[in-house]
Hints:
- The protein starts with 12 loop residues before the first helix and ends with a helix.
- It has helices spanning 13-21, 49-54, 56-70, 84-94, 108-113, 135-140, 165-170, 180-193, 210-221, 242-258, 270-275, 288-292, 338-348, 351-357, 369-373, 377-387, 401-416, 421-436; strands at 42-48, 73-79, 100-104, 152-164, 228-230, 235-237, 281-285, 306-309, 322-330, 390-391.
- The chain folds into two domains: 13-157 and 325-391, D-Maltodextrin-Binding Protein, domain 2, CATH 3.40.190.10; 158-322 and 397-436, Periplasmic binding protein-like II (D-Maltodextrin-Binding Protein, domain 2, 3-Layer(aba) Sandwich).
- Helix 3 (56-70) runs antiparallel to helix 14 and helix 9 (210-221) crosses helix 10.
- It is globular.
- It has 439 residues and is an alpha/beta fold.
- The strands form two sheets. Strands 1, 2, 3, 4, 7, 8, 9 and 10 form an eight-stranded mixed beta sheet that branches.
Amino acid sequence: MKRKIAVAAALASVLTAAACSSSSTAGSSKQATLSTDGKGKTINVWLMQDAQKGWPGVVDAAKKQFTAETGANVNIQWQTWTNYSTKLDTALLSGNAPDALELGNTQTAKYIAANSFVDLSSVKDKFDNSSSWLDSLAASGQSADHTKTYAIPYYAGARIMIYRKDLFAAAGVTTPPTTLDELTADLTKVKAANSKVPNFSALYLPGKNWYTAVSFGAGTYGVNNVIAKSDGSKFTGTLTDPTFIQGIQTWDTLQKNFSSGGTTVDETTQDALMAKGNIAAIIGNGWEVGSVTDPKTGDPSLASKLGTIAVPGTTAGQPTPAFLGGSDLAVPTHAANPGLGAEFLRIFTNTAQQTALAKFAIPNNKTLLPTYEAVSDVNKAAGAAANGKTWFIPNSQFWSQASDEVALQTAFSAIAAGGDPTAALTTAQTTIIGDLNGG
Length: 439
């Protein structure tokens, strides 16, 4: 599930105009229907190669069931994340859109605002487990006011704590921490036991890893309206709310006390650094366990020494809120066969397919999380994070990866280097609110 979503720096002019002219609750007025009348037809579906490489059997089973029930064939066109936004913009604007497609959940809002997807609200209850969809994943496919559904949750990923069980045990810590207080006490012991190791980090927290920093802010502020909130007409910032700053100060204390260096870098190199032996714990996606132990880039001998848990929160059993990334599925407004496209998505995300998917990735609903968690300790940790309170970026087409994420990276890097949290986040907030209200 390791991937980088490349988002175009600027949207095609027509798509931008459509988004800017739409309201905060915009979306296609075209209502979805579910069709089984497909005899002699072939639908085109865009899916990412994550499925082709990770769970092709799930896709094949969905295709087989769909053909049996509708008489239509399915042409899967495998996609890659590189330059996907540009390709999707072109297809939607040229009228050559597929009948159903996958996209990253951070991409969805701009297409909803541009009226690019069919409104699936009227058929939502026909989708298995729709009442228990993962909160943040479901929200990413909704209108800005969360009253309509335009994209269906597909699968998710959540960050967890990956730690060296051997280093913790050598410091006298044999039971994983369940609260932030316990984590702090354990890290203090691990740090002391490794005081002679150069550049040692009991918990590596690179300054530009804004996902982790914001998670701590959400732990005290709450998971709704993280970063910004909207009254329906404009956004206002929440980064400087005192309760949010309180969580950031917790992150800052952990970073300063237990992380060595890394104030001006992000998390992209943390796996390789951990493999070198001077990092006892990191916060990252579950797949990073494999990266740390990769024979080419990591250290395979660490495979039996790594443990995983959801990042502890203030109360036992309630993890620090995790950012819930992942993929959504949608039907383009101008699809040639929208009813069949919606029907394929219904079958592709039904209980049988999601149960099979749960062996490889976090399923789209809480009902099947136990199935996912039973596969491995890594899954157990990620499942606990996904089942807890989760947060997501502001649900706006004007959220900018190139501007807003950089503003957050700059702010947390400055805080990690000793800057004042309120001052740094005030600067970031100005940039972000300017973007969100710039339409």
